[in-house]
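Budget justification aside, the reviewers requested a transparent look at the raw inputs and outputs of the sequence design task funded under Objective 1. We therefore reproduce one unedited record. The lines immediately below are the structure tokens for a 183-residue chain.
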């Protein structure tokens, strides 16, 4: 399957799988390479959780044979969601490069968890990393930079799939006898 065959009926399944893969990658970096996420990293992860929820709703709608307009709306929502993710990731990358200031949540370390086992948490506590410091780079781009590129590609693909007619729509435009001949 190539990108030309991605339409609004098929794209949500791919968006769900790619979002799950991006979250798995982020958690892998955290768990296996011990790269702790900063507050902006968590914001970027929330985008993928939202995209997975929208994708799941779209897949359910497709299963229930929702009208094409519903699938169009879901693909546009995915595009907007991924574009927001690209914006957050770009902002994070610019903070890492020192072009923009870090938000106040990066300086404070976020909210304190006051559970019943507070002493155990204090013994295991880790410092919240700075949003302005890239812990890992590949070819000059940090994880936030790569996430910005991936999110923008997903946003563009979502919008392309929204405006691409589905195969059933193109089949309905041509009667059984009126289909264009393939060369």
């Amino acid at each position: 399957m190539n990108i030309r065959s991605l339409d609004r009926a098929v794209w949500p399944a791919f968006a769900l799988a790619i979002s799950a893969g991006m979250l798995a990658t982020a958690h892998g970096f955290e768990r296996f390479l011990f790269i702790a996420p900063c507050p902006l990293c968590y914001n970027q992860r929330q985008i993928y959780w939202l995209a997975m929820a929208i994708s799941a709703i779209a897949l359910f709608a497709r299963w229930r044979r929702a009208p094409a307009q519903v699938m169009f709306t879901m693909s546009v929502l995915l595009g907007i969601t991924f574009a927001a993710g690209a914006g957050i990731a770009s902002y994070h990358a610019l903070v890492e490069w020192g072009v923009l200031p870090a938000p106040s949540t990066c300086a404070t370390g976020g909210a304190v968890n006051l559970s019943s086992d507070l002493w155990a948490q204090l013994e295991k506590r880790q410092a919240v990393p700075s949003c302005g410091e890239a812990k890992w780079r590949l070819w000059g781009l940090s994880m936030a930079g790569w996430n910005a590129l991936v999110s923008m590609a997903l946003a563009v693909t979502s919008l392309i799939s929204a405006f691409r007619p589905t195969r059933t729509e193109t089949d309905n435009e041509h009667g059984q006898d009126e289909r264009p001949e393939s060369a």
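Residues 170-180 have pLDDT under 50 and may be disordered. The radius of gyration is 21 Å. Computational costs for records of this kind are itemized in the attached budget.
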